[in-house]
Amino acid sequence: MRKLLLSLSLLLSQEGIAEPAALRFSVSESWSMPLMHLENHQPTSGILLEIFDSLARQVGRQAEYHVMPRLRIQGALESADIDVRCYIAKSWLGDLRGDYAWSVPILVQRDLLVAAPLTVGPYPEQFDNEVIGTVTGYNYPALQHLFDSHRLVREDARNQEQVLRMLVAGRYNYAISNQLAMDWINRELPPEQRLKVVATVSEQDAACLVRKDPALPVQQILDTLQAMRKSGEIQRIVERYAPRR
Fold first, then answer.
1. What domains are there in the chain, each with its CATH number?
2. In this predicted model, what pLDDT tens digit does every residue of 73-103 receive, in sequence order?
3. Tens-place pLDDT, residues 130-153
4. From CA 175, how far away is CA 78, in angstroms rounded?
5. What is this structure's pTM?
6. Cβ atoms of 188 and 204 closer than 8 Å
7. DSSP class per residue in 193-228
């Protein structure tokens, strides 16, 4: 009887100090390096992976990654299947259903109109049925009038890297790319083959959206991201993936 009571007491004490639930991050299938590299449907490296891992560690949680199509992510947040969604801007989202908190900006999303190195052609307002590489599910409000008037014709690929690889291969003459992805591709190309910037399409701060839930350390998450930015930790992570000049 004494042994039974001791065993029950030990069991209850172990349950009382159970590990807190994992912090669940959404990962978009459309991300590519240097933001995130996916292998067997799980992240293995990249700027965002390092930020997420550090954030989870500093708030005392295990990081858990849910990889899904970009268009499903907001629904997963609203249904409480994930806790944190990062690398988004308020202007990218419609009406939000649920209670959320925004973090400070963690990165800058700089979208560029880029061209193959030998392309000598028209600039945006002179386009006429020009095929341009784009990412499936992404909207480009600054260029929407050109899509509507058929001056530009979208050719979608699954992620940003595929878009740029097809541009390098000559599939089309122009593409839309974020600055980080273009620099990542150019780092492996000789100077004469590197992609060039035609124009800046848009530039926006990208932050994290945290689901408000009593079971989550929401304020600690927000404070930690702010501290990571203020201390320069996030910038140092970004610089590790920057091309060598």
1. 20-108+204-240 (3.40.190.10), 109-203 (3.40.190.10)
2. 988 988 899 999 999 988 887 777 778 999 9
3. 999 999 888 888 899 999 999 999
4. 32
5. 0.85
6. no
7. G--EEEEEEEEEEEEEEEE--TTS-HHHHHHHHHHH
